[in-house]
Structure formats: C-alpha cells, structure tokens
Write a structure and sequence with these properties.
Radius of gyration of chain A: 22 Å
Shape of chain A: rod-shaped
Number of helices of chain B: 20
Largest sheet of chain B: none
Order of helices and strands of chain B: HHHHHHHHHHHHHHHHHHHH
Bound molecules: sodium ion
Helix content of chain A: 55-70%
Largest sheet of chain A: none
Shape of chain B: globular
Number of strands of chain A: 0
Order of helices and strands of chain A: HH
Oligomer: heterohexamer
Chain lengths: 82, 376, 376, 82, 376, 82
C-alpha cells in the first residue's frame, strides 16, 4: 500500500478508470452479443418471433395493460430481494 | 447465598458493557425500520435481530460455539450470498433487457456510483480518526452497486470487519431508494424528457432466454473470472428458471431455499454488529458514503440515458429509466415508473426500467469482479 | 470360498451383540408407539428409526464417518434444537396469554415439576446402582418442562450421554399427557371449580403482539442471559410471525425449515440410543422420574390456580387450565378443555388454557437458563 | 461436587428454591410489563382496541363459536410440535 | 498500465488450459442434453453447470475455499446421496411389488448387468492405456444398477476420482433407456409373449405397506449391513410416506428437501468433472461399459421372466416387464408399457412393471452392499 | 491386488458369482417374507382386503382406467428421480 495519501488517491483513480472501462467493455460486448444472437436466431427462424424488432408506438391500450400486468408480476416476483 | 451471588454475576445487568447496550439499541432500531417503515424487512429484520442476540452479555451467542458463530460460516465460505444470488437469478426475467439491449449501458453507467464511492472512501482518510485501507475502500464502494448479496460477498472477502456496517448501509439505502432517487431524477431531466414514451418491447423467445445465461457466464469466464462465482450462481438460477425442464428446482430456489438462507444470512450479518466493529467513526463514514454512492449512481444512469439520446436520437430512451441502472430490483424500476407517471399518468415505464434494473445487477457483479481481482 | 467366509464375517448376524438387538427392538417399539398409538409421531418416528439404524452391527451408521454422526453435529452445536424453537415461536400465538397475563403465573407454577424432578433425581442416588451427578440430575429435571427442544438443548450441554433417554422420556410423556393429567386434575379440584366459566378474552392488538417478543428478549438478556439462546430464537420466530412484513420467512420457518430440522434432529437423537448409553438402570430411573415430573407439574399448576382464586376472587380462574402450564402445547390445553367439558359441555376452556400453555414454554426456558447458569 | 448425599440434596434444595424464585420473579415481571404496555398502548390509542378489558360473561354463543374456531386453529398451528 | 497487465493476467483468456476449455464444452453438452433432449434434467442440468463452473480458469470455484468444494463435502460424507435416497423412498409406492412379490426376482436378475459390467471393466485392462483397479471396476459396475444416488454413493467410497464420469454415464444411460431397451426387448421375446395380459394386481393394505420397510431394513441389517445406510434411508423415506402420521415430513422429504439436495449434489458431481479426471481413456471405457451394463441388465430381466414362465406356467408374466428390473424408475416401466402396447394397445403393463422397477432399486442397493463389503 | 490379469478376472468372476448369489438369496427371502406376512395379515383379518389374491382377468375396462390413472400418478410421483 502507498504511504502518502495522494499516491493512495492516484491508485484509486487508476483503479476507477480501469474498473469503469471493464464494466463498459463487458456490458457493451454483451449488447453486441445479444444483438448478434437475436439476429442469428431470427435468420434461422429458430423460434417464432411474434413481431421482430420494435412494434412502434401505436400499441393499443389493451396490450399496454397486458404489459403492465406482466411487468408488475415480474416485479413482484423479486419480492424485494436483491 | 453463594448461589445468589453466582446468579447475580451471571445476569446480563451485572455484565452489560455500554457498547453492548448501544448495539442492542441499534438492533432494535433496525427492527423498527424493518417492521414499521418496511425497510427491506426480509433482510433487515433478521439482521436487526442478529444484532440484538449477539450483543447480549454473557450469552455469547455470536462467540465461538454459539449458534451465530456456526451460521456465520455460511458467509465466511461465501456459500450463503452465492445461494441468495442463485435464488435471485431464478427470480429474474431478462426478457425486457434482451428486448432492448442498449439499456445494458444504463446499467453500466450506474456503476460510476461504485467507483465514485471508492474515491470518496479513500479521500475520507483526510478526516482525522478515519482510516480506510484500500481493501476497506473497495468493500465500501460496492454499496454503490445496490446489491445486497454482492456487497456481503465482497465485504466477506476484502473487509470482514466492516461487513456488518456495509450490509446495514447497503440494505438501508436500498430501502431509501424511493426517497433518494426522485429529487436527483427530477433535477437532471426536463419535463419534455420525462414525457418520452418508449416503444413497446419486442417479443423475446424462449431460446434467447435460455442462451443468455450461458453467454453471460462464458463472457465472465473469459474476461473476468473473479466475477465468475457471483455471475455463475446468478446464471445457474436463471437457467434453472428459463430452461423449463426443472420446474421443481426453480420453485425451490425461488422460495424455500432462498428463504432459509435469508434467515441464516441475516442473522449472521447481524452477528457482525458488535460494538467494537460498529461503534467507530468509520461506520459514520460508511453511512455517509452510502448515500453518496446511491446518488452518484442514480445521476450517472440518468445522464447516460441523456447521452444515448444525443448519440442516437431515433429510438429515444426516457432518461428516468437510467436511474434504475443502480439495480435495487425492483424498487428503482418502480421509482422510475412513478416519477414518469407524475408527468404523464399513461406512460408505463416499469417494463422498460426492468432492463437497466437487471443490467445493474450484472454491472455491479462485474465491478465486484474487478475489485476482487485488483485489490489484494 | 475365502470370499464367502469374508462375507459371513461381514453379515450382521455374525456380529450382533445382544445389546444392539435389544436397542433395535426399542427402536421398533418407538416406531410402533409413533405410528399405531400416534405418540408424538413427528419426533418419535425419526428417533425410533435413528435408534434402529444406529444399532445395526458393522454398518456404523452412527459412528464417526456415518451419516448420523454428521447429523449429530447439529445437536452438539445446539443449532437444531434452537431452529426448532424458532419454528415453534413462529407457530405460537401469544394472544391468549397477553389477553390474560396472570395466566403466566400458572406457567411459572408448573415448573415445580422441573425442580421436584431435580430433587428426585438426586435422591435416586440412594438406590444402589443408580448414580446421577448434579449435571445429570439437572438435565433429567428439564423433562418436567414438557418441552422437547428445551430438553434436548439442555441435555446436549449438561449430560450428552443421557440425551437419548431424556429425549425419549420427554416425548413419550408428552404423548401420555391425556392419560397422566386428567386423574390428577380431577383429584385436586371440586366439581364446582371445574364448572367455573371464564370471562371472554379481550382483544389483543397487533402492536402488543409485535412488542412482546422484544420485551421478553430484553428481560431475558437483562436477567438470565443463559436462557437467551432459547428465548431469543423463540422470540425471533414469533417476531417473524407477528411482524406481518416477512410472510415468506414465516411460512418457511413454520413448514419446510422446521420439517427438515425435525427429521435430522430425530435421527440424531436416535443415534444416541446405543445399548451402553440406554440399557442402564439410570434409564429406568429417568423414565420413572419423567412420570413424576409431569404429575408434579400438573398438580402445581392446578394448585396455583386455586391459590389465585383465593387471593383474587373477582375474576376466577378455572383451576383446570393450571394443568396446561406444563406446556406440552397444545395437548395439555386440549386436556384442560376436555376435562372441563365433562362437567359442562358448553364450557370452552381451550382458548383460556392456551395462555398458561405458552407461558409454560417460557417458564421452562427460564428454568433451563437457571440450570445452565448454576450447574457446571 | 459434594461428597455426602445429604450435602448433595441440600445443594439441590437450594438450587430448586433459587430456581423457582427466578421463574416466578421473571414471569411476574413479565405480567407487570404486559399490563403496563397494554395500558400505555390504550392511553395513546396506538391501536384500536376492540373492547378494552374484559367483556364480561354475557358473550353471545356466536362469539363463543368464533372463539373456539380461533382456539382450534391456533392449536392446530402447533401441529403437536414442542 | 501495470494495473492493466495485472488485469490481463487475471483474465480467463490468458489462463485457459486446453483441458478446461474442453471440459467447459462437455458441461455445455450436458446442459444441451438436459434442456433440449430432456436427458434427466433434474440431475444433468446441475451436473453440467457444475462442470462449467469448476473449469473456469483462475476462479477456483471447485478448489479449496470455493463454493463447490464446500458442497462436495455433502457427497464425500455420503449425506447427499443418502438424503436423495430417503426422498426417493418417500416417493416410492411398494404396492405393485407387494401385490405380486415374484416380480422381485426380475429386479434381482437385472443386477446381472452390474456384475457383467464388473467383469467387463476388469477385462478392459487388456486394452493398452486403460487401467482399472478392482475398486474402480466395482464403482463402474454399479452404473448397471441404473440408480443415480447408489452409483454416486458407491463411487464416492470406492473411486472418488471416477465419480464424475460414473455419474455422467449413469444418468446419461438412464435417459437413454427408451432407446437402449426396446430393441433388446423385441429381440428376446416373441409376439405371443409380448401379448401376455397379466392378472390385475390384488389390493395391498396399509399395514402391509407399513410393515414392509421395517422387514426390508431388518433383513439388510441381518445379512448385509454394508447396504444398510442405503436401504435404511430408503426405508425411512418409505415409512415416513406410508405411516400416514407424519404427512408434513413426507411432503418435505419428497419436495423441498430432495430439491435442495439435488441442486447441491448435481453441482458437486459436476465439480469432479475436471480435465485430468475426465479426459482420460478410462472415461471412454466407462461410457462403453455403461451401454453394455444397461443392455445386459435389460436382457437378464427379460430372460428371467421367460424362465419364470417356464417354471410356473399358471400365472404368466409378460417378459417385457422384466426389462423394468434395471430400475431407472419410472422410465423403464414406461418403456415396458409402451413396447407392450405396440402389440396390443389395450394391454396396460405400467402397473405390473412398477413391481420389478422398484425391486430393481432394492436389488442394486443389495449389489452395492456386496461390493462395498467385499472390495477394499 | 493380484498381479496377473487372469487372476484378476478370476477374482472378479468369483465376486460376481457371490454377488448374484446374495442378490437372489436376498430378494428370494424377501419374496418369501412378503408372502408369509400377507398370509398372516389375512388370517388374523388385520385389515380389510378388498379381494384377497388375484381378481382374475375379467376386470372391467373401468377398473383398468382407474388402475392406469393410479399407475401414472405413481410414476409421476417419481418425477424422473432415481
Ligand atoms: Na447494481
Ligand atoms: Na414447560
Ligand atoms: Na437397479
């Protein structure tokens, strides 16, 4: 461990830079892989995609309702755990 | 009357140390917050009770040979937090995140909270009386991940002495998410931004959901093996859930197993709330840093969303869901939804906020891996 | 044919010691009582089976390295009985006791059964061949508390050698409560007393119920820390139940967790039923003292109720509910109700008897604390 | 440990006295605290007390029924555990 | 940039050994078989995941101090497989077997698969590069018992190094029962034999069912104590089920307890799938022997049934149910039923096949006892 | 352990013989005991036997159905565990 505080903080700063770098790299890679995977799956029609890509803003109120119900039940699933 | 003297000497009253009395009061405060204020009661109730039990004089419930000393082995070995993580994985639906993968970046941004806190903890060494080592600072920083089991896992490896204070801070601030986040969210967004309606999420198929935990695990194995225990157990739980072929294991992971481990984990964390470990200026520092961590993570998430809207203005993201990137599942997603509905009651952001929300869990596990790999 | 000889030498038949055969018969007797007579089957079935398993020659199922030796660690460490106590706490409604607190005194009086048994055990040293140390006597005495996990906890601390016999005696006599208690209750009460109808219990609010376990725990921490592990885990279970904010932990404590621990605890207790520990004159002494303990406790409870009626004749107590002070929840409360209905079929004493019943659990935990503190 | 049996019994007798003393003291204290708590809670009306204190003997058969149902369900809860 | 170097050196990529990569692929193959092909997913999913986790470089999840090393203690001590066996006992209805006890002989005959495999394993020493000790051969042979927990229990005692390969082979071939058995069954039976309709099973009373586990345990204690842990825990589970007085213990044994242990057991087995233990020519030998074992056991069962029809032609047995004697409950009983219905769609053999099916469990436990007693 | 492979195989052969002998002896003994037990229970009428012994082949389709339902539920009970 460094002796003086400034060295200490400098190490911390370097660690933070590296850390955030890794976090962004890792999750960006994940974004890329998810997109690739999704495209491959669609290409080979490995599963019936209800509607590939975005459905646009014109979704009916009804489906909004279904969505919110799904969201709430997903949320409740978590039961405040973390 | 020798017996009576012996008995008096064996009472708690004649043996109470002031620190123990204070810590029992802290324990009861946690119980009050858990029961009356419903602050993360699943964890804070057992933690509070564990604090009370372990500070009863003479009884030695947390000392070697006491029941809490045996339960604590489950934390020391890492088994309890990892099993909780497995159960959380079995409760997690990655669907919303897979439908809109760019929300992962919001979960990444919110981890600035972790590293900001790290710097904050190191800087606190300026305050006379506070003395945080690099390991201490890293363990404290993870509070910014807003993820209980991750915090406990990292603290048990890097700074077991601070485990009690860190866990208490992590769960308390998670409970305070509905108070901490909205002002920051409102301050950093315009009314117009808060009104952004997001496109409905695409359908995510079963195969995508089954493949994802495997992909995530491989990535972690390749790049960051120090995060593999956490991410691995999380992915195991999620695969058990999504595979659809082991329904009974999924049900048990999400219910009885996680419940049993939660009781044991909470009591064990409480057993680390002893006077000499908790009644220190460092604890105040940790509590202060915890608030900072959450605020900083929230702000980073919101600002990242605004940045994304500038970079790609076609499919706009409501910046409120950036706040959900701190994880604190599902509380911060609910907060995003609620703040959004203040502007437009028909704008349902909950599902959209679940994406950054679960991404935040991955993000903080990755950050934890970085700290475990580089801080020794 | 060397292999055949080797095989014959490895059979149970060629290795049976007479003691093992007798103990296996004892095990089957317990199974018979559990299944056919429904004597506390939840405990006596696993105990009986554990006795059979551990007395199989050669197999060494209870020896070091055998499964029962590992399970026994849960008793040795105190973890199993304390977890059972937590579950029992989660099943306990203190409402009837809080509504009529003076019934606590009936629960106190019934603990005369414990100390009477202590003196009885010491006096049995007069019988040639019997040899009870002070610790042995204290461990045996707790049978009078009519509380399985308390008995096992105290015996594991003070006289592990007697654990098997003590647990068997405790659970057997609890099962015999409907036979042991009524004659004593009838002998000590007049028809007029048995006809006493009690005032309906007042409403007890949620806050009272939530506060009570905390109060009880503080009192125990102050005065009798040696009872704090038992009372603490009991209070934890009760707080989990009454807090209303951790329903899933409450459900798990009352069901899967206590069920799993019950199987393991029963098997482990059974593993202490070896010939050299059980086939001793001391065991007969323990069985005789057990009957004495229950009778004495029953009588003390009933007489205490009569005394209370003399001291405060305004709100009379039906002395039959004094018998429920031995605990043996809820069997002895049912017995009180049934004997009362022999005199007046419209007199419902069950709810009133639940007060002394659960008070008896506290009373015997307190008595256990005294013994653990003063007998070393 | 004492050598002669009478000393042994005397110790046991002392222990029993102390023990029963503690048990009664502990539970009496508890009675007192419960009464105090209940009074404080009523005073500050911290919770709606359906009817403070005893309701007297005139309870109807109906409430008796409810009571017995409650009692039985409480009892069944215990599932013969102890 | 020292930190970056340090980080690169801590990545999986820079530390991957080829063997680890191959074993991770094996793990994913098992996951694929479990999820897509539904090969015994309850076990193969956790086993496969455990294999992936334990081969992640640097992370050391299966090394001392890693979570899988702690979970593995449950196998090393024998506790996990025995608890699974208890749960299986609680799921077993011996009714069909008790109704037609001569089907026990079919369960006996199928154990030829075990001893045939033993000889096969010993003979494989002829192949250069393969080297099986007597203990190894015995552990491999038990695969022929078609009984997962028995295989794991025996392997953990006799050849812990081969545990991973043996468990994978055992569960894989059990999953392949619908492919392996039918051709053998068709080849060894005539159309006329496959058309045999069996008499409806007699009613079996509760007392018979309660007595049976006790009788079985006594027999094992007398004759083969080395099988007593397995048979004892199996009988305990069955007695808990049939006694009717401990419903809550029965429910927990069949559900939460077995589910929790299954997850832990599977992960622990997976942790033994390391490159140096699995990537050996011996593993290929084990996989080849496994197919042999199942085929041989199937054939023996069918031929035994034909022999029984010759000896006692009055109450004919459909030889197809002989194939169910390998156990692999209930898959092989279903296979017998299905193959029978190919000849006559109205011939329901399922119930009749459950007799040899559960007899096969007893048979392989007995064979395991013989091997444990005689092979040291 | 034997040195030469043939001795090794011979030991294996002896073990197999003994092993299968024990398995058959054990399970045959069990057959015998089950039969005895069943007879004793019937003799003392310890339980109402719906119809002692075999009911013959004339079982109706209905009871076949019930049987198959029972069999399936028993099988499902196992949930593919072993
Ligand atoms: Na997070
Ligand atoms: Na009692
Ligand atoms: Na078998």
């Amino acid at each position: 461990m460094e002796s003086s505080l400034s060295e200490f903080l400098l190490s911390g700063f370097k660690l933070s830079l590296i850390g955030m770098g890794i976090v962004f790299m890792f999750l960006s890679l994940l974004v890329w892989i998810i997109n690739i995977t999704s495209k491959i799956l669609q290409k080979y029609s490995l599963e019936p995609q209800e509607l590939p890509g975005y459905r646009g803003l014109g979704a009916t109120a009804e489906s909004e309702d279904a969505e919110i119900v799904a969201a709430i039940s997903a949320a409740i699933q978590w039961y405040r755990y973390r | 009357m020798e017996g009576l003297t012996q008995l008096w000497q064996s009472t708690g009253l004649s043996n109470f140390e002031p620190g123990q009395a204070v810590m029992m009061a802290v324990g009861f405060l946690l119980l009050y917050l858990a029961i009356r204020k419903e602050f993360e009661p699943l964890l804070l109730l057992p933690i509070g009770f564990g604090a009370v039990l372990s500070n009863i004089p003479v009884a030695g419930i947390a000392d070697e040979g006491g029941i809490l000393s045996y339960l604590y082995l489950g934390i020391k070995s890492g088994v309890f937090p990892l099993l909780i993580f497995m159960g959380v994985g079995a409760m997690t639906d990655f669907g919303p995140m897979l439908a809109n993968p760019k929300t992962l970046l919001l979960g990444a941004a919110a981890q600035f909270g972790i590293f900001g806190t790290l710097l904050g903890a190191l800087a606190l060494n300026l305050v006379p009386g506070l003395n945080f080592s690099f390991k201490d600072a890293a363990a404290i920083a993870i509070i910014g991940g807003a993820d209980g089991p991750t915090s406990i896992y990292v603290a048990s490896k890097l700074a077991p002495d601070l485990l009690g204070a860190i866990a208490v801070a992590a769960y308390s601030y998670m409970a305070l998410v509905p108070l901490i986040q909205p002002p920051i969210m409102r301050a950093l967004t315009t009314e117009q931004e808060r009104l952004i309606e997001m496109a409905q999420l695409r359908y995510v198929g079963r195969i995508e959901k089954i493949i994802f935990p495997g992909v995530l695990l491989i990535l972690s194995a390749m790049l960051l093996p120090s995060a593999a225990p956490l991410i691995g157990m999380f992915c195991l739980g999620n695969l058990i859930r999504e595979s659809g072929v082991v329904e009974r294991l999924s049900k048990t992971s999400q219910n009885e197993l996680i419940n049993i481990v939660t009781i044991f984990l909470g009591l064990s964390v409480g057993s680390k709330l002893s006077a000499h470990q908790f009644l220190r200026p460092e604890t105040l520092g940790i509590l202060a840093l915890g608030a900072l961590a959450f605020s900083f993570g929230t702000a980073s998430g919101v600002l990242m969303a605004k940045l994304m809207n500038i970079v790609s203005p076609t499919h706009k993201v409501n910046p409120l869901i950036g706040a959900a990137g701190v994880s604190a599942v599902p509380m911060s997603a609910r907060v995003a939804n609620k703040v959004g509905q203040e502007s437009n009651p028909h704008n349902f952001l909950l599902m959209h906020a679940m994406g950054p929300n679960v991404a935040g869990v991955i993000g903080s596990a990755v950050a934890a891996g970085v700290l475990l790999a580089l801080v020794q």
